[in-house]
What does this fold into?
Amino acid sequence: MAKISSAVFCSHVPAIGAAIDLGKTADPYWVPLFKGFEFSKQWIKQAKPDVIFLVYNDHATAFDASIIPTFAIGCAERFPPADEGWGPRKVPDVIGYPELAAHIAQSVILDEFDLTIINDMKVDHGLSVPLSLMFGQPEAWPCRIIPFPVNVVQYPPPTGNRCYNLGKAIRSAIEKFDEDLNVQIWGTGGMSHQIQGPRAGLINKEFDNRFLDRMLSDPASLAKIPHIEYVREAGAEAIELVMWLVALGAMGPNPRLVHRFHHVPASNTAVGHLILENQ
Ligand code: DHB
Ligand code: FE
It folds into this structure.
């Protein structure tokens, strides 16, 4: 049967993708950031996932104001990188897993979570930057990837509690798939940041570190954080952290901490990164 072996949590700042693509990873500004992912790149080589279920948000790239799905699941064979204004990043196409994605869609929708089924989509930095951080610059991504966009751009995003419970439904769906697959679930975005308005540049290291602590010590309590607390304490775009709760909800009891990293700044954002393994 398919099994979720581990979870990766990771910010997805577009400037990180640009630094990788433009060969700036050895610049003094970027060295401490990329150092935090050296262990992770080695770890994932031996973790060897067959599939990544990748929870991220589209930043008005594939979707615009004309259609805003709260939760969507990428069921296509292939997802090319989107043009976000400077041409598409020169990263490999994402190769999907239509059979597993359709199975998860069926199980999760019948579990009463409404998903939008997507059969044609381009993917933006929300998905491609975490892949670059974990895998570097390969010719092809080394496994299949199911993109799972969540709306955190247009109010109202889903509550953290709904995201956490959705994670549990995703876990139950994956565990019913009748093929031996090593599945990872990734939650991306965050941590504290605000990219517009009078509070642009807001960072809250204490909030972020408390959040990282509670990922292990009291995961269920994170699901109770109301939207306003993310926005007030950690900036408008910190609401992206509800996507981490989808991945956290999909993990088993008492996962083992493999790696923890937090760094400020990356452009205008605090970068957080955690790897958890199921026991
Ligand atoms: C920026 C965009 C993001 O989507 C994000 O999560 C962090 C920063 C940016 O435009 O700088
Ligand atoms: Fe983002």
